[in-house]
Specification:
Elements (H helix, E strand, L loop, with lengths): L1 H20 L5 H11 L9 H28 L15 H18 L6 H23 L4 H19 L5 H20 L5 H20 L1
Helix pairs in contact: 1-7, 2-3, 2-6, 3-4, 4-5, 5-8, 6-7, 6-8, 7-8
Length: 210
């Protein structure tokens, strides 16, 4: 019995840790890291511009949206920070969309940021569609986000001659582990997990390719 409980605790901790490390709010930062470090044309972007993109993304897509969560809770738009209720998830997502528009504007004031601006636009449309879907049906935000990263890597390799083989395979493995974690924690059904990944991957690939 002790071994069983200990094993359960370890798996639960691993699943929760993976869900935090691969949380959707962190995915834009990971995408920028991949964009600026994978061998491709974008290695030629000046270092100062890269750091500017990091700072804008950290503030507009991570810190400010997280800072708004207590306000949303105070105004009773959300009950807690778990966002298990599908309708409650819309408000934080729309908050990110608003800040993403501001980030898009800030990026436009600096040269060599066209690709990052394009990624912002894709994310804005993706999140908007995600909100519409969420009104009717709960879909995995975690899997949508990591699916989007996989789609981005696919485009980076196909369209921009990036050497994405190892990164793409790594993200696929992480996506599988994340899907298992979300199912283990009983946050989603298998269909919500699978469709979330496909939605993110197919949408981002189609938007960036054409």
């Amino acid at each position: 019995m002790r071994i069983h409980v200990h094993t359960f605790s370890v798996f639960h901790w691993l699943a929760r840790t993976l869900s935090v490390v691969l949380h959707p709010v962190l995915m834009p930062v990971y995408i920028l890291y991949l964009l600026f470090h994978i061998p491709s044309w974008f290695l030629l972007i000046p270092e100062g511009v890269k750091w500017y993109c990091y700072l804008v993304t950290l503030f507009m897509l991570l810190l400010l949206p997280l800072a708004c969560l207590p306000l949303l809770r105070h105004l009773r738009f959300i009950k807690d920070y778990h966002l298990d209720n599908k309708q409650e998830r819309i408000y934080p997502v729309l908050t990110v969309v608003v800040f993403a528009f501001l980030g898009f504007w800030l990026l436009g004031r600096v040269a060599y940021t066209d690709i990052v601006q394009q990624l912002y636009l894709v994310m804005i449309v993706l999140l908007s569609l995600f909100s519409v879907i969420t009104l009717r049906w709960k879909i995995s935000m975690h899997m949508t986000a990591i699916g989007g990263v996989c789609g981005f890597l696919l485009v980076l390799g196909l369209k921009y001659s990036g050497d994405v083989r190892s990164s793409f395979m790594t993200m696929l493995v992480l996506a599988g582990l994340l899907a298992s974690s979300r199912l283990y924690l009983k946050k989603h059904t298998p269909l919500q997990v699978y469709l979330g990944f496909l939605f993110g991957a197919v949408f981002v690939t189609a938007m960036l390719l054409y």
